[in-house]
Every structure is written in structure tokens, then in C-alpha cells.
Amino acid sequence: MSKVRRSQFQTFINTDPGEDEAVYAQLGKGITTGAVAANPQVTTEQYISDDEPTTDVDSYQRSLSVEARLITDNDALEYLEALWQAGPPVLDAAVTDIVNVYLYKPAVEGKYPATKHEVAVAFDQYGGDAGQAINLNCTLHYRGNQVPGMFDPETLEFTPTEESE
Fold it and tell me: DSSP per residue over 90-156, as a string?
């Protein structure tokens, strides 16, 4: 049994969502926290024959909270800052996609298991305290179903698996 480090679960964001071909940049440098919240949507019912209620998991409303200190020359953070400066974005202007890559799983020809997700970018905080770096905090709200596939961290290309096509 071996433990998995956070650096072995990486997320890449599409910094050019309006184009036919995605341009991915790693959410990494400058980001101090990046955890996916599952946010399960549940239904709980109490049956007349039982003393305890029954809970079913209906779906998940996942989101990825990003806490970053703004760094220049970082394509992912520059993309997010440009979104902030332009609006901040709402509706379709806030939509892009991300790829979560599982680097702790075995690679096949340099590609790792991954899932692609459409997300809506919602900004939580921009700025910070005097004398400190600018904080750029946002939440990436997952939209719809994920697409399973493989991701090449060298070429930054996502390939859907056959069952998802």
C-alpha cells in the first residue's frame, strides 16, 4: 500500500474555450488549495415500517475550489485573471472545461487516465491584504456528465475513451 500525493492528481483548464481545439494549462503554481467538493444531492424518506430513515444519493453537484496567489507567466492564472477583468463572467462567458488527470494510475504510451468536465467559473475573491500577493479565488462548478479518457501531460491532449464517444 502506498499513499498518493496531491501532486499526483492534476487539473488542467482550457484557456481557449471558444476554439475547436482545447488549449490546456495546468492549475498548479500559485495555487495553494484545490479540492473537489462532491456535494451529494440526497433524498431522505422515513418509511412507516422503519424506525430509521432511508437516504438515497440522487446525484452530485461537484465543484473545485481554487485558492491562488496571482503569478504572472502562468497561463492558467492569466486566463482566470483575464476572465475576472473582463466582467467577471456570467452565463456562457463563464464556461470552459477542465481535465482531471490521475498520475498515480499506470500510463499507457505516456497517457494517463483522466476525466474531462465542463465547468462554470465563479469568482469568490480578488485582492487581499496590503503588502501581500493578490489572491485570486474561484470555484469551478461542474456542469453535466464527465467524459472519461486519457491525457498526455507532455502534449496536453485529451483523448476520450471509446465508450464515451
Answer: -GGGGEEEEEEEETTSPPBTTBEEEEEEEEEEEEEEEE-STTSPPEEEEEEEEEEEEEEEEEETTTT
Mean pLDDT of the chain: 94
> Are the CB atoms for 97 and 48 separated by under 8 Å?
no
Cell numbers at 150, concatenated: 486519457
Which cell is 102 given? 490521475
Q: Which residues of the chain have pLDDT under 70?
A: 163-165
Q: Which domains are present in the chain? A: 6-43+53-150+160-164 (2.30.110)
Helix (H/G/I), strand (E/B), else coil: 8: helix
pLDDT in tens, 12-53: 999 999 888 999 999 999 999 899 999 999 999 999 999 999
